Amino acid sequence: GKPMTWLRPADKRARFDFAVSDMGDAQIGDLVRAELSGRGPATKARVIDVIGDPFAPRSLSMIAIARHEIPHVFHEETLEEAERAAKLPLTPDGREDLRDLPIVAIDPIDARDHDDAVWAIPDEDEKNKGGWKAIVAIADVSYYVRADGALDREARRRGNSVYFPDQVVPMLPETLSAGVCSLKAGEDRAAMACHLTVDKHGRVTSWRFTRALVRLRANIAYERAQAAYDADLPDEGWDADVLPTLKNLWGCWTLLAKARAARAPLDLDLPERQVRLDEQGNIAEIRVRERLDSMRLIEDYMIAANVAAAKALEAKKSPVMYRIHEPPSREKLVSLKDYLETFEQSFALGQVITPAVFNRLIDGFSGDDRLPQLMEAILRSQTQAYYGPANSGHFGLALGSYAHFTSPIRRYADLIVHRALVDSYRLEVPGKPKGLPERTGLGDADRKGLSRIGEAISALERRAMEAERETIDRYVAAYLATKTGEIVPARITGVQPFGFFATVDGLGGDGLVPVSTLGSERFFYDEAARTLDSEHGRVSYSIGQRLELRLMEANPISGALRFELPDAPEGGFRNRPPRRDGLKGKGPKKDGAGKHMVGKRGRPGNIRHQGRKR
User: Fold this and answer.
1) Where are the beta strands (DSSP E) in 232-356?
2) From the CB of residue 362, how many other CB atoms can be counted at a distance below 10 Å?
3) What is the pLDDT of residue 11?
4) Entry pTM
């Protein structure tokens, strides 16, 4: 009969290809968006949009953008308002002039926008001997993005910027996000300044907020700031006061870090993967981002400013968009207790659960090979942080009041906090902008719909995190595609009745080792221990275990990897006896047709296998 064309979904969880009923303008190998119709084996795919070559620069992130329906094109009306906003006059009127202070920004080397800058100096007040004064200066986005305007509506619809290795989908047009809002050295910029007083124990004892005018002395990468501080040597081209500022920042941070240690927040040091591309958009390297003191320093200044913003708004009885992280549920703690028992580690459910309880567990496993799996188990026991106007504290940071204030270029929650501060501290600045809303405080939509906005931006944050994680997995698969057939060092990340999942050490990615490839013995799944054990107890596979695996497949389109044991025969062990009854746990969920739809517009996949029999 007539050769068939098939659509392979770009979602690694999808387990079937679909027959294509209408290819439109697509060619074999193209990345497309398609609409599914019918059910079960009769499901057909109709191409509705051709994205293009799946291996062209930016295509791997375009899959995630299409799959999650992330808005990535700004409407003309929004761009026009951004251009008008960018021309707003910037004068010291109604602002504190901080241009003489040697304020610096310390950011990742690949930062696409610069929201925050810092400065500190020993406090000369006799009452605060040994203490410090610090300023956290944050881009004054509320000056440019006015409530209820076109820019505001689009920012709320996006919720946050989404960062991929090959591009950023910004919350605000680049005229603002990479232009007038971004704090760049040598340029006059509008800022919201959080003035902090830190005592000799590292406690923040007072704060005030002003609208300010700043001119940064330097934009410094984390690595460079660390090297300059360690070597006590400034960079060529730095002003004379940049290195003294770094030393002051470290001096004040030593105390902030002391107060943080006393508070004992959750100390999960989970590795973050960094993908570096060359100029052609190909992968130059994938590595785990090093954790430097310069990163912890900035993190602690940001946390101090975020707490100050929440408490300042509470003191003014103002609405607050809190960043909330609730304690773990009892159900999750019971599951963690069962898991820890397999380590011969007890966990008392009756105790008051604080982050310090988890930190003690982590300390008890320092130097133990099982530490990564313990950290992952603790992470799984945590609830997901979210935004909302009703405060429940931040469990992970061990804080009673916490809001996001320090990243208004890339997060809508922070912009709302800025507007609330403008209202509470009467920080409106003079001037009637042409063609823009007049006020820079909270709008009607903000005030009336804080809960609804909180729910929406929490969901958008989860969408961005999934899209970013999937895209990095696709880049990892593209990087490993040249290494199929090779033996790689791996670590088990999950165990199920149908096999175990593993990740390549130091790289990431996630691939299945099917139970059918594990040997001719039967295997049994122990749900509490999360292990697969062979019938005669010779072999056991558990989360965190390190082993060598053969990489059998790496699919950059879906991000899926597939592994086998190095000595598995081709095609797996076909003569295995059937599993006996009494297998604990549930088998894999069956995928119904259309389960992983992108939404009304369809799902991305790529056109493959013309003529292949299904």
Assistant:
1) 273-277, 283-288, 322-324
2) 16
3) 85
4) 0.89
